[in-house]
Description:
mainly alpha, globular, Growth Hormone, Chain: A, 508 residues, single chain, 17 helices
Amino acid sequence: MSTSSNLGFRSDRGPILIALMLSTSLIALDSTILATAVPSIVQDLGGLTQFPWLFSVYLLAQAVSVPVYAKLADTVGRKPVILVGIALFLVGSILCGFAWDMSSLIVMRALQGLGAGAVLPMTTTIAADIYTVAERAKTQGYIASVWAVSSVVGPTLGGVFSQFASWRWIFFVNIPFCLLAAAMLWRNYDESVERRRHRIDYAGAAVLTVALTLLILAVLEGGQAWAWSSWQSIGSFAVGAVLLGIFGVIERRVPEPVLPLEVLTRRLIVATCLIGIGIGAVLVGLTSYVPTFLERSTSATPIVAGLAVAALTIGWPISASQSGRLYMRIGFRPTALIGLVIATVGALLLWLTSSTPNVWATAGSCLVVGLGLGLVATPTLIAAQASVPWNERAVVTGTNMFMRSVGSAVGVAIFGAIANAVIAARGGDASSEAVQAGSTAVFLAVLVAAAASIVVGLLMPHTRAEDVEGVQGDRDADSSDFDSPAADTADSADADRVPQPSTTPTTG
């Protein structure tokens, strides 16, 4: 089966690809549209001191729910999980639009985050189910391009709604996208899952959720809402760590663990998860500090500063869509290492040019970093997905994405501490020179994170695409023992494809 003739919007799987892109756009737009509307929201609802929670509670709810959704998807199928996620996001968006004060808006944002926790991992998992290893890079490029478009469209829409209509429309605009994405998935995506009685790991899911909530909350709020040495910080870390230990004990005793610990002992999975932490740290370092750096050091407008960061999300899908050519020829590990080196070079350029601030130099550096990350994120995720059978694929995908969230959370804490220390020592945030110095210090930390990821990349086993294709084919063929769809539907024309479960698109 020719790859080129079976990809794109006009192929038999095209409607599903469009639905996955629409689903991704919900999260991508939401992550970029809100920031520009914050002043209008605060002016209308008040709660200036509370508004950072609009972002924190969303990220927290999204991160802690991913492992649970991932296990459910491997148990009952992807379709019900992603539809539930879209429904939660839709209800949360509507309620956000009708929020009457900042506290109610924060609560509704948590509901949105719970929806996002299901949508993002399911889009990449479904793509892994219906596309071969060779095809996935290009389809991930399609999905990644949604982020590039959203990075430009989101802030623009947020500004337009705030200035000419009402900030409430930044939430109401999600309604048609949610309905269209759900309708297309309902109509075009069909999967057959072997039905049997499951013993759901409620205890493990509850303990893991509370543990992750405490740990991520401690990282996000440490040094901000409370001091690192405060009882709140120490207590959150301590209780969260103890609960993680209890979670490990529970998972070893239950027949169907929410997070199979054996999966996390495989070298490839561990290496790709650690790389995910590095990706998350690099991303949050650039997206959080580049705009402020340019606005304060070059007097760039927020739109110009935002477009400089958008260069990162433009480079990412370009290289991601072409990464398949590389990993099919030289393997996953060399491809990821090439991407890590390119991303590190971009971070180095950003750090070197920050001493003489220039919008074009900063945007160019972000573009290089994005080109590098596209060659890292996509191949490492695809390698991890292809190394496991259907009944573990969502868990592996969710774990990889969760580790990126961990990297972002830890990055926010470390970069914030570095920036605050440098800015305080240089005269405070009223000084543009101090802000520039603080941003430069953060860019150096980003460079260190990127360089450390190269070391982690060396830990990946040298795996070629045809190796994991064969492994995945064998495991998918045997996966009915673990409540996965039967993998016997491939016909002779599909002999060069990775054997897939009976998760087949229907266009009628």
